[in-house]
Design brief:
The chain is α+β, with helices and mostly antiparallel strands. It contains seven helices and nine strands, in the order H-H-E-E-E-E-H-E-E-H-H-H-H-E-E-E. It has a domain at 20-136 and 183-223: Electron Transport, Fmn-binding Protein, Chain A (Pnp Oxidase, Chain A). The protein has helices at residues 3-11, 34-47, 91-98, 126-135, 138-146, 156-169, 171-174; strands spanning 55-61, 67-73, 76-78, 81-87, 101-108, 113-123, 185-199, 207-213, 219-223. The protein is globular.
Length: 226
């Protein structure tokens, strides 16, 4: 595709439309606990073979109030919250350290569904981080040591050289349990205080349910205009 053709295609963005007609979301059919509703939808996304159903967008806010987003993978979900793993020294790690409030979003295009989650973030226990780290493939464990995430590097060769260096450094342990977890790498858990479930519907009259915690810790379910 030439640059001119690409530019012309972008001029037609306003004409891109889709009618959402695959399902509906009613108060009577939704579950009273948002974590249960999320687990149901996530299972349906997995069973439906949606590409990367575990991919979620994480939004954080820096000290200068500028937001940033990135895609991470959910690695755990229970009544305590939603877990992912990363480098604590990354941009998101630094922003969470300065402002622990964050938001997550899942978009399952094939199911015409979106889930939005907001809450406060905390680190998971060292035991949880160690257990997950040891479950990763060996090259991913080495990669956690090799990548100074979010830092400027000269070229890809830096990563390759770092991986070789740490692979050699931990060679004696590779034949046993593998390298230890880097001290600046581990898990975060977002503890939700707000959930939104969006189901696409015809004529842009989408279904949108919000769950929020009241003062007694009970979930209040409300319908929002789309």
């Amino acid at each position: 595709m030439t640059e001119t053709n690409a530019s012309n295609d972008l001029k037609n963005l306003q004409n891109l439309r889709k009618s959402y007609e695959s399902a509906e979301l009613s108060e009577s059919d939704s579950l009273a606990n948002p974590q249960d509703q999320f687990a149901l939808w996530l299972k349906q996304a997995i069973d439906g073979k949606v590409p990367e159903p575990n991919a979620m967008t994480l939004a954080t806010v820096a000290s200068n109030l500028r937001p940033s987003t990135r895609v991470v993978l959910i690695k755990g979900c229970d009544e305590r919250g939603i877990v992912w793993y990363t480098n604590f020294d990354s941009r998101k790690g630094n922003e969470i350290a300065g402002n622990p409030y964050a938001a997550l979003q899942f978009h399952w295009v094939e199911l015409e569904r979106v889930v939005r989650i907001e809450g406060i973030v905390e680190k998971v226990s060292d035991e949880e981080s160690d257990a997950y780290y040891q479950s990763r493939p060996m090259d991913s464990r080495i990669g956690a040591w090799a990548s100074p995430q979010s830092q400027v590097i000269a070229n890809r060769g830096v990563l390759v050289a770092n991986a070789a260096k740490y692979g050699a450094q931990f060679l004696p342990t590779l034949l046993k349990n593998g390298p230890p977890r880097p001290p600046n790498w581990g898990g975060y858990r977002l503890k939700p205080d707000s959930w939104q479930f969006w189901q696409g519907r015809p004529s842009r009259l989408h279904d949108r349910l919000r769950y929020t915690l009241d003062a007694q810790g009970a979930w209040i379910r409300e319908r929002l205009a789309p």
